[in-house]
């Protein structure tokens, strides 16, 4: 690897020497570069087993960058295509999500309208070979690399169709796969349109605008923008999405970092699409980065009401720089600030504990800011919703059923007898059908540990250390917990039934069907619809308290 890569990498080792004068700092960089290069050479020459220089270097760079934050990453040449897919949402492939579980490569979801689905690949099919290469012993990443390739090239899959014992061969051509940022939009109530924005890759703002235009054509006079579970993406797309709802030449976001010449204020450059339409933005703890910019800007300008849970709290901006041999590095170069002046970064990576963990900014350090109408908002911990809806917790039994793939497998069993299914919004498992699931799942080997059992185990260990005579009480609690677990299939019926319906619907209606199947269980969505139906209540949220 060229010295340029090493120089760039080891530059980060100089973070601890910021207090040095420029001449001293340059010496420290050169010294550490020499130490790093010498250590790298000696390990490669003398280590008892053969080592891969590329793997060793990547491990060293990754460890160094991980000490900074999770978003500063080294991208070697063989991972560039995956990185481009993340930023563009586009790649050459078959259009299917295939996962490896228990040594088998199974189709988890074919994307509707793409090559795999058109060739007949179904959820639950096992893929045995790709272009003659056995998938035995390969992980999910290995499988994805074999699936990807230039559009138009032929690919042959050997599959074991779900519910069958005969091997089948499918041959078709790869396609340019473009994953939409807006994967679902539809009317959810009279005059209320809903769209789910899942990414911020190139073209996201156009997709949002097109979705709203089509919803208006269906009678929408109010909009719900769902950015839950959206990890963010391109800053420019976030700016353009905000511009749909605010006037031209308004500040959207500013970035500030160590290199002051890179500091920039992003403003809305275009005429707005709609300044008046009532808007609700739904967020949760996995709404991050660009998703938080959109939510924060709508809140700062009192342009919409935020519903759900506090967002993730990623107020950092990354820039990508080229390195030697077609590799790249993605570096956190700045923090971003919403129009009110707040940075919503929740973790302070500059102050790690001795064990390497990172704490959130203390509540005492949070500062108050004001929205356009004078409402008080805070920095330092994500974006707080205007109307908080408690997040639903996943019970331990549901996690266990998913981990053992029993939800997935039962959906396969259930749908194997069907040729059609009611629409996702209408389909429900009856109580009798849920009892059938209970009978089926009890024949499968599965177990799980509840939080209470974990705590009891810790108590048992501590009581032994302290020689406390509480064995009888602990055994009584263990028996009680076991009895509770036996009834968990009924106690958490709604949560489990929701997951079952979700997987069953996917067999007939794919991702869009899964979105609709969850509407009846979605408390955030119900609250959003309720607020939009009441104009006075909607306006009350936007007034100064």
Main features:
6-stranded mixed sheet; alpha+beta; 4 domains; 6-stranded antiparallel sheet; 23 strands; 545 residues; disordered N terminus; Pdz3 Domain; 2-enoyl-CoA Hydratase, Chain A, domain 1
What percentage of residues falls in helices of 4 or more residues?
Answer: 25-40%
The low-pLDDT segments are: 1-19
Q: What's the CATH H-level homologous superfamily of the largest domain?
A: 2-enoyl-CoA Hydratase, Chain A, domain 1
| Structural class assignment | alpha+beta
Give average pLDDT, whole number: 89
User: Largest beta sheet, briefly?
Assistant: 6 strands, antiparallel
Q: Which descriptor suits the 3D outline?
A: globular
SS strand fraction: 15-25%
Helix count equals 18
CATH topology of the largest domain: 2-enoyl-CoA Hydratase, Chain A, domain 1
How large, in whole angstroms, is the Cα Rg?
27 Å
Just give the CATH class of the largest domain.
Answer: Alpha Beta
Whole-number total of structural domains: 4
List how many beta strands DSSP finds.
23
Distance from N terminus to C terminus (CA atoms, Å) equals 60 Å
Any guess at the CATH architecture of the largest domain? Answer: Alpha-Beta Complex
């Amino acid at each position: 690897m060229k010295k340029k890569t090493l120089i760039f990498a080891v530059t980060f080792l100089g973070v601890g020497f910021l207090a040095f004068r420029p001449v001293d700092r340059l010496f420290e960089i050169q010294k550490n570069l020499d130490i790093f290069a010498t250590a790298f050479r000696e390990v490669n020459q003398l280590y008892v087993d053969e080592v891969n220089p590329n793997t060793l270097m990547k491990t060293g760079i990754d460890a160094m960058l991980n000490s900074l934050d999770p978003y500063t990453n080294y991208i070697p040449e063989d991972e560039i295509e995956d990185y481009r897919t993340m930023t563009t949402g586009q790649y050459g492939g078959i259009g299917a999500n295939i996962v490896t579980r228990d040594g088998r490569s199974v189709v988890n979801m074919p994307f509707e309208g793409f090559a795999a689905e058109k060739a007949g690949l179904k959820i639950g099919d096992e893929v045995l070979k790709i272009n003659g290469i056995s998938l035995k012993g390969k992980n999910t990443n290995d499988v994805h690399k074999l699936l990807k390739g230039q559009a138009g090239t032929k690919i042959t899959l050997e599959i074991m169709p779900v519910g069958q014992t005969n091997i089948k061969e499918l041959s078709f051509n790869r396609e340019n796969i473009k994953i939409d940022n807006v994967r679902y939009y539809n009317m959810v109530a009279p005059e209320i349109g809903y769209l789910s924005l899942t990414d911020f890759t190139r073209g996201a703002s156009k997709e949002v605008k097109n979705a709203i235009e089509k919803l208006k054509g269906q009678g929408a006079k109010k909009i719900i923008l769902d950015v839950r579970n959206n990890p963010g993406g391109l800053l420019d797309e976030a700016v353009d999405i905000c511009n749909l709802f605010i006037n031209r030449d308004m500040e959207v976001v500013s970035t500030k970092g160590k290199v002051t010449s890179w500091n920039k204020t992003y403003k809305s450059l275009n005429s707005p699409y709609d300044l008046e339409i009532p808007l609700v933005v739904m967020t949760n703890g996995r709404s991050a980065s660009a998703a938080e910019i959109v939510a924060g800007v709508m809140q700062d300008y009192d342009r919409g009401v935020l519903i759900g849970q506090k967002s993730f709290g990623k107020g950092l901006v990354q820039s990508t720089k080229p390195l030697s041999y077609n590799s790249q590095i993605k570096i956190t170069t700045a923090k971003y600030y919403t129009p009110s002046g707040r940075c919503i970064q929740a973790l302070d990576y500059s102050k790690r504990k001795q064990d390497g963990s990172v704490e959130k900014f203390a509540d005492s350090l949070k500062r108050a800011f004001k929205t356009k109408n004078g409402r008080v908002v805070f920095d330092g911990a994500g974006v707080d919703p205007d109307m908080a809806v408690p997040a639903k917790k996943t019970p331990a039994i549901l996690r266990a059923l998913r981990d053992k793939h029993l939800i997935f497998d039962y959906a396969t069993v259930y749908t194997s007898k069907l040729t059609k299914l009611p629409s996702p919004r209408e389909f429900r498992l009856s109580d009798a059908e849920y009892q059938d699931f209970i009978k089926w799942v009890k024949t499968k080997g599965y177990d799980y540990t509840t939080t209470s059992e974990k705590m009891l185990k810790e108590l048992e260990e501590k009581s032994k250390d302290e020689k406390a005579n509480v064995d009888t009480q602990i055994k009584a609690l263990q028996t009680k917990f076991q009895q509770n677990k036996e009834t968990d299939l009924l106690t958490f019926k709604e949560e489990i039934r929701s997951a079952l319906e979700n997987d069953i619907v996917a067999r007939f209606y794919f991702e869009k069907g899964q979105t609709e199947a969850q509407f009846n269980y979605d408390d955030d969505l119900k609250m959003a619809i309720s607020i939009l139906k009441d104009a006075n209540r909607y306006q009350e949220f936007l007034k100064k308290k």
